[in-house]
Amino acid sequence: MRFIVGTGPGGQGVYLVEGQKAWNLTALDRKVGHDLMGLISGAADLSELVAKKDEGASFDLSAITPELPVAAPGKIICLGLNYVDHIKEGGYDVPTYPALFMRSMTSMIPAGAPMVRPSCSEQLDYEAELMVIIGKGGRHISEDSALDHVFGYTLFNDGSVREYQRKTHQWTPGKNFDGTGPVGPVVVTPDELPKGAEGLKIESRVGSEILQSATTSDMLWSVARTISTISEYTTLEPGDYLAMGTPPGVGHAKTPQRWLRPGEVVEVEIEGIGICANPIVAEEDMRATEAAE
User: For the stretch 42-80, what's the b/e string if a residue is b when 16 or more beta carbons lie within 10 angstroms of its beta carbon?
Assistant: First the structure.
């Protein structure tokens, strides 16, 4: 199944998506809630909702303004250095343990929202990534059972301010600027994709300019291995986000370097999932607009 969380003609809520049509499940059952947590937790009976979806009106998917699939995830854990060619272009050694870092909620935005180039740096980079949404929590999860803990897959653009990422070995500043991490819009359940979402084409682009192009089969740490590894040190909880790293072709490794510029629209696409598109805005322009309102 495919879902989008957002606001449309049917109001705010969780929409079931089929092709270009969407049905507001929240309007059918208030226990669904306003993000995916109602479905993840089992508070609402999904099979029952799907059976009676036609009792409600359908809406055009394009009329829905996306919101974050999970509004307040307990953790946002990201992998760096998960594609060998990306590791090489960054000048790093191939790691024997995944390079993990955390993102803050203020850095996260839904698909379609402005992605903010900060006023203190022009080095806003793009990173196309597969995003995993945890459905069933756990600790010390085996690799064999790890995929049973996945609720769905979506898209992520790990917007990185390289100048600040390189200031420390921890990467935290460059990976946590406000408004730089788009997620969504569509979340796809595992039954609609290859096992572990492997073998899917992944790209980023601006207009007709293809910035990155690879396949999720190139990941060093698969989804199952990643879940198992992370659960060795922390309890994964329903609704947690796991970002699976980016393929080669990022802007800081190009000659000349290719930073995202205000006025552009950057897209991340993964085969079988969809497209996450966001306009780039300068922080100073955004603040001036907000002050004038």
Answer: eebebeebeeebeebebbebeebebbbbbbebebbbbbb
pLDDT tens-digit map of 74-105: 999 999 999 998 988 888 888 999 999 999 99
Beta bridge partners of 277: 267
Q: What is the dihedral of CA 198, 154, 125, 89, to 10 degrees?
A: -10
**Residue 224 in contact with residue 205, Cβ under 8 Å?**
no
CB 95 within 8 A of CB 81: yes
Which helix H or strand E contains 37, and what residues bound it? helix 37-40
How many beta carbons lie within 10 A of that of residue 220, not counting itself? 18
Closest by CA to 111, choosing from 284, 285, 291, 273, is 273
Sheet holding 209-215, edge to edge: 115-117, 274-282, 265-270, 201-206, 209-215
